[in-house]
Write a structure and sequence with these properties.
Shape: globular
Number of strands: 16
Bound molecules: 1-deoxynojirimycin
Helix content: 25-40%
Radius of gyration: 23 Å
Largest sheet: 8 strands, parallel
Strand order of the largest sheet: 9-8-7-3-2-1-11-10
Low-confidence stretches: none
Length: 530
Amino acid sequence: MRPTDYRGAPWWKHAVCYQVYIRSYADADGDGVGDMAGITARLPHLAELGVDALWITPFYPSPQNDHGYDVADYCGVDPLFGSLDDADLLFKGAHELGIRVIVDLVPNHTSSEHPWFKAALASPPGSPERARYLFRPGRGDGPPNNWKSVFGGSAWTRVPDGEWYLHLFDTTQPDLDWTNPEVREMFEQVLGFWLERGVDGFRIDVAHGLFKERGLPDQRLTPEELARAAEVEEDDNETVAAWHPAHEPMWDQPEVHEVYRSWRRILDAWPAERMAVGEAWTRDQASLARYIRPDELHQAFNFHWLTAPWSASAFRDVITRTLSAAESVGASPTWVLSNHDVIRHPTRYGGGTVGLGRARASTMTMLALPGSAYLYQGEELGLEEVDVPPEAWQDPLALRTGKAGRDGCRVPLPWSGDHSPYGFGPEGTVPWIPQPTTWGALTVEAQAADPGSTLSFYRRALATRREFATSAGDDVELLDAGPDVVTFRRGDLVCHLNCGVTPVEVPPGRVLLCSGPTPGAPDTATWLRV
Ligand code: NOJ
């Protein structure tokens, strides 16, 4: 198989990218944690699904406190996942199947096990070793400011000599000081290292976090914002990163854009087409668009689609804003519904039959829009969020806050059989997060044999999308079809989504695909050729 040629467009512009959460995709050695060899062995699944690219979450040497997002060495492979040779084999195997490879870059923070941080701890306040991180004296007995960690509690930890260091995430993830040229140099070398090994792109973790407001001032929160912050923290269904008070001195500072300009120069100078996609939880599409200006990142995840409620007007609003923001900077939009940080979308949409029906319909709707789509492993199986018992919690967010965290969307995939490990690893493997006993009917093996399954639906949807992804063009015309319906036309394709509770008539045309049994039924999307 050769890579899809989307009529000469850059490969990433229309791509469907599949996120592999390495710990939970496939475990070749039976230690309960997924690995490189496991991914390589299961590449045919991705080829059959019909994706264009694979994004692999961090596999670098790491103490795994944040399951890989705490990197101790940016240019290696953790023995837990294999070796650099295994990485080469994986990249080669993917390329042979026409699948591009995106790796995850974590520039906002290192692990506390990174040699730089160890050197910082071993050196005195004011030393060049400390200047790679954000060490500050405290205020009286307390931390230098009032910032909170995304994982709960203060964003500062005190070291024995009395200084504090900043960590916007776990205490073992110290934030780097991006005003320090050494930090910039190091990451430019890291980009070069993986480009040399043949990767096609980078997913940039916390892309909006690298710089902090000068002077690290207190975050100014109004009483209403304070109350709202507490509510968001309490609500298991709200994504903390999606809530934005007016003053955010730790996010989205203007200096960050210069970093992406320098990375873009590196990527553009590479002899083949290479890309970067940013994870930036900014407050709106307009601020997100700044990250994808022509000389910055190629793409950024559009989390506004993911956070929209099940509502036609909310979807229409996101579509309009996304397309106009992308157009304002000449970039191509992206669409995403799930990833390893959020509740799986069938569950967000209500769970059970209703949730799954809506999930299939919203997936089809995003796949009909111009730009590229990011899928998260397991959504092609219709997996729901798993209620992981507290004694099995692994996520630092859960362990720091005492509330269910992100483990429920990270449960290892079911491939075959009727009992755990469902082919995730060799028989007898104990997966690092327990799998439900009810997953037998959801395995790849079971669903591949059933034309009505979610897997078969995804395969048909991706194959059909391939036919119109470029020919339908980039212009989207939203049609007025009533308050509960989203209908848009793109070239000779019409996508119709009924978010209401009563059936509606779909526009005239040849039905290409329907997310459920009946076009126009509630919670159903339909693609028509007109
Ligand atoms: C975003 C990643 O997706 C998430 O899993 C991680 O915990 C944080 N960044 C910190 O790196």
